[in-house]
Amino acid sequence: MSTPAFLNPPAHTQKRKRRNLIFQSICLFAAFIAVAILCTLIYKVVVDGVGRVSLDFIKANPSQMFPDKAGIWSPLVGSMYIMALTIIFVVPVGVAAAIYLEEFTYRKNRLVRFIQVNISNLAGVPSIVFGMLGLSLFVTIIGLGKSILTGALTMSILVLPMVILVTQEALKAVPKSYREASLALGSTQWQTIRRAVIPRAIPGILTGIILAASRAIGETAPLIVVGAVGLVTFPPDSLDDRYTVLPLQILDWIGQPKEEFRIAAAAAILVLMGLLIVLNSLAIIIRARQQAKG
Amino acid sequence: MKTVLGELAVGMQTEKTMTEPPNGLMVAQDVDFYYGNFQALKKVCLEMPPQKITALIGPSGCGKSTFLRCLNRMNDLIDGTRLEGLVTIDGHDIYSKDVDVVELRKTVGMVFQKPNPFPMSIFDNVAYGPKIHGMKKKADLEVKVEECLTRSFLWDEVKDKLHQSALGLSGGQQQRLCIARTIAVNPEIILMDEPCSALDPVATAKIEDLMLELKEQFTIVIVTHNMQQAQRASDTTAFFMLGELMEVAPTRDIFLRPKNKRTEDYISGRFG
Ligand SMILES: Nc1ncnc2c1ncn2[C@@H]1O[C@H](COP(=O)(O)OP(=O)(O)OP(=O)(O)O)[C@@H](O)[C@H]1O
Ligand SMILES: [Mg+2]
C-alpha cells in the first residue's frame, strides 16, 4: 500500500504552502508597521499631555499670556456647537434623501442614477473644497458672515453625502420580505417605510449619524476657510459669534514657540481623541447589538 | 382555449348569481410577462373562481411565482418589468390606469413562502393591516385580532402571549400568523406562494385545514411543489412549464387523467 497524499505531500503542494507562508508574513509585517506608527504617536502624545489633562484644563479658556493656565473651554464649546448644529441640519435632509433614493425609486431612472453617482463622488471630495463652497455660498452670497452658523452649515454639506450613503446602506439591509409583507397588506410606500422599514434601519442610521458627528468635530480645514479663528478666549453664546474649535486650537498651540503650549496641545489632542473614541465605540456598540439581533 | 374559458366564466357567473353575487373571480387572459427582455409568462389564460382553491404546479423557474405576483401587482416593484394581456377581478381590469394599487393589494392578499412576520408582537402583526387602513380604537383592534387569530386556528396557542414577539413562534405558527395578518384586512382573494415549503408535515396539515376553511369566503390561489398537497387541498390545478400554462383542469382529473404528456411526466415525478 502506498502512503496517501495527505501524509506525503507532493513537491508542488509544498511549494504552494511556502508561498502562502511568505505572503502571510508580508501582510503581518505591513499590519505591524501601521500599528507601530500609531502606537508611537499615541505614546508621544500621552507622555507629553497626560499630566496636563484635568477638569481645570477643560474648564479654562485659552490664553496667550499664561500658557500653563490655558484651557480648552471655548474651543470645546465651539466644537460641540458645530457638532450639534451639523447633526440638526444634516439628519433630516440626509435621511430624507436616502429614503427617496432607496425606497421611492425602485424603478431607477437616469436622473436617480446620476444623483446616486454624484453623491458617491461627493463623499470623496477633499474637505477644503467644501470649505470654499461654504465661503462663497454662506459667507458671500447668503451673508451669514464668519459665524458658527456658517461653520455648521458648511460642515453639514461636508457630511451630507456620508449620511446619505450610510442611511442607504441601513435601508438596504432591511430584508425585502418586510417591505413585501407590508405592501401586500395594502400599505402605501410611506406607511411601509415608516412602520416596517425604518424601525429596523434605525441602528444603522444612528451609526451613520454618530460617524458624521465624529467627522464634524475632527475636520479642520473647511472651518479655517469659512472663518473659524485660532484664538478665541470666550465661548460663543450666539450663532453669529466668532468661534474656534478643538482641532484649530491644537493647530494654534502647536505653532507657538513655547514648550508649555506644545504640552497643552498634546493634552487637547488627548481630549479630542477621547471624544472620538467615545463616539466611535458608540457606533460600534450599536452596530454589534443590531447584528446580534439579526 | 379562450372560448372554452369564456363559456366557463359565463357558466360560473350565472350559477353564482343565484346564490350570492360572485365576489373575487379572478381571471387572467393572454398574460405575457417580461423581466426586461426575458419573457417569463407566455399567453397565460386562467380562471380563479371564488370559494375554490386553485393550485399552480410546475417545475422550478416555470413562472408560478411570477404569475401569482401579477395578480396583486407585486411585480410592479421590480425594475424593468412589463405585463401584456388582461387580469381582471369580477370583470374589472386590475392593470387599468384608474386602479389604485394600494387598494388592490388590500383586496388581493398574499402569503409568502418564508413566514415573514414583522419583528413586533403577535398582536401588532395582526393589527398592522387594520391600523394602516385606519382602525384606531384599541377595543376594535382587539376584537379584530382575536377574530383573525381564531379563524387561522392560532388563538388558543397564542392568546396568553399576544404581546410577545412574533419571532418567538414556530415556523408553522408564524405562517398561520401571516395568514391571520392577511385576512385582517378583509381581502377577497388570497394568494399563497408555497406557504408550506418551510414547514413540517404536521404544520402543513394545519395550514391545509385552514385553507379549506378559508375557501368558504375567499378565492384562494396557491403555488405548491407538493403534489399531495395539490391533490388534498385544491379544486383546480394548473400546470405551468417554461412560462406556459400547459394544462388546467379539475384537480381529480389532472391527477387521474392528465391530457398532456408533460403534465403526466411531471406529476408522476419523472422530472422537475
Ligand atoms: N426579479 C427577476 N428578474 C429577472 N428574472 C426573474 C426574476 N424573478 C424571476 N425571474 C425569472 O422568471 C422565471 C420564472 O421565475 P419564478 O420565480 O416565477 O419561477 P417559479 O415557478 O416560482 O419557480 P420556483 O418553483 O423555483 O419558485 C425564472 O426563469 C426566473 O429566473
Ligand atoms: Mg416561486
Outline the structure in words.
The complex is a heterodimer of chains A (294) and B (272). Chain A is mainly alpha-helical. Chain A has helices spanning 11-49, 55-59, 73-104, 110-122, 127-141, 148-172, 176-184, 189-218, 221-225, 246-254, 259-293. Chain A is built from 11 helices and no strands. In chain A, helix 6 crosses helix 8, helix 7 packs antiparallel against helix 8 (189-218) and helix 8 runs antiparallel to helix 11 (259-293). Chain B starts with a helix and ends in a 5-residue tail after the last helix. Classes of the chains: A mainly alpha (294), B alpha/beta (272). Residues 35, 38, 40, 58, 60-66, 78 of chain B line the site of adenosine-5'-triphosphate (ATP).
Features:
heterodimer; A: mainly alpha; MetI-like fold; 2 domains; flat; B: 272 residues; alpha/beta; six-stranded mixed sheet; four-stranded antiparallel sheet; binds adenosine-5'-triphosphate; binds magnesium ion
Contiguous uncertain segments of 5+ residues of chain A: none
Number of structurally distinct domains of chain A: 2
**Which runs of chain B of at least 5 residues are low in confidence (pLDDT < 50)?**
1-18
Number of helices of chain A: 11
Extended strand count of chain B = 10
Q: Compute the number of strand runs of chain A.
A: 0
> Which ligands appear in the coordinates?
adenosine-5'-triphosphate, magnesium ion
> What percent of residues of chain A adopt helix (DSSP H or I)?
over 70%
Structural class by secondary-structure content of chain A: mainly alpha
Order of helices and strands of chain A: HHHHHHHHHHH
How does the overall form of chain B come out from the CA principal axes? Answer: globular
Helical content band of chain B? 40-55%
CATH homologous superfamily descriptor of the largest domain in chain A = MetI-like
In one word, what is the shape of chain A?
A: flat
- Termini separation of chain B comes to 26 Å
Report Rg of chain A. Answer: 25 Å
Strand portion of chain B, in percent? 15-25%
